[in-house]
Structures are given as structure tokens and as C-alpha cells.
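call fold(seq) -> C-alpha cells
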Amino acid sequence: MDDYAWAAGIATDLVNTAPEVWHGEDKLPDLDSLAAFAELHSIPVDTRPSDLRAVHRLRLTVRDLINYPDRTELIDGASVLTSAVARLTVLADSARWAVSIRPGSTVTDSLSLLCGVGILGVVQVLGPERFRKCSAPSCQGAFIDTTRPGRRRYCMPGLCGNRVNVANHRARRASAR
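ret:
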């Protein structure tokens, strides 16, 4: 795996399944939804009953890292996420590295590795200022901005951005009357 932006997107998607983002509705309430989330992100699916609680704990850990983007804490936290479940390989040209999940790992292990690599990649390439809270007034979401210009404002642009645009449009129409 060498695509930190893809991995950071999975971390963003994971934290935004939380009930506080969806006004009380958890988007990962059961093993079936966890399996669907894993499948959607091309993560090997072999869920166990204990995975759901473990993924919920992982979601909180990743959320805490995104919400309080201190460079040292991001690196330390992401290193913890990756260290127990992965093997690091320095490639032949010595300029690149690769990481792979250990055999027999769970979906939680895979998500932990992906989130950790995504966080580490963004910290290294783009900087800790790319970890943000959603700008929509009614949203509690968080995200990792991997866009080229670094101007992303919403955790889910199609949802939160659209809500803000609709609210602004309605406010302009009301003030024009």
C-alpha cells in the first residue's frame, strides 16, 4: 500500500460514521454495516463479533487525532495504529517503503493500519494543518484534507457543503423580500 490519500479518505469516512456526525444515528451499528463499510473500501471482510466494538474504539482514537492535530501526537498516535498489525518493507530503490498487514489480521487491524498510514502520509507530505473539523455549523464531522489546494471545508462536501449552500440561498432570498 502506497496511497496515503486513499488511506486518509478511509480514516475520514470511518470517523464520519459516528453518531455525533449523523445527529444520533450510528452508521456502523452492527456487523453487517461494518462488513459493508469494509467491502466499500476494498478491505478484506472477515468480521467477528468483537470487531464492532473494536472498530468503534478505533473510530474514537482516529477522531481524537484528527480533532487535535499536533504533529507529534499525530505521528505517535498513527505509529501506534500501525505498529502492532503491519510489516514494514524498504523497497529495493531505498527511496520508498511498503507496508502490509500481518496474516490472520481482523478488519479492525486492517482499518487501523490504513488509518495510521493515511495519517502518517498526510503529516509527512501535507502537514498537520490538513486535519480539520467540518465548517458546517450543524455538523460535528472531521476530515483529513488531501486535496491539492488544501481548501476543503466540509467533512462530506456533497452533504454538508450542500446544506450550507441551501441555507445561504434561503437567507439571501429572505433578505431580498
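The longest helix spans residues 157-176.
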